[in-house]
Amino acid sequence: MSAESAVRLRMHSGVPIVDVLGEWEPCATAELAEMIGRLAGAGHYEIVINVQRAALKGVAALEQLSRWVQTVREHCGHIDVVGTAEQLEALLREQAGRMFRLATCEETALSHIKRTPVLATGIRCTARPAG
Questions:
Q1: Can you say how many angstroms the Cα of residue 37 is from the centroid of all Cα atoms in its chain?
Q2: 81 phi-psi bin (left φ>0, alpha ψ -120 to 50, beta other)
Q3: pTM here?
Q4: Where in the chain are the domains?
Q5: How confident is the model at residue 3 (pLDDT cuts 50, 70, 90)?
Q6: Given CA atoms 60, 99, 44, 84 in this order, what sign does their dihedral have?
């Protein structure tokens, strides 16, 4: 799988979400780091990385984003990682939980960012205040 098809960018409730798909090849890891760098350079300091559809082996490659994590934190932002229970467990073993906020679904990650429940309705997703 090429880097172009292994890393995709989309928006959800105004927050950039980077999807990592398939195997963690070196070119995919480099493309992910470049994309996070471009987003941070453009002023996006709340970013979600979704690795749910990526291979479990190689999740530790996220540690290579430490430079960009520091840049985002300097602007009071966060990088949230959304993954399966197994992927998040692997990240915790690697102590990557210190670098990233971890979530099992995008709505949870977006709720952390927006500080309000994020509801999914049909194809489109939007943030709405509770109550």
A1: 13
A2: beta
A3: 0.84
A4: 3-127
A5: very low
A6: positive
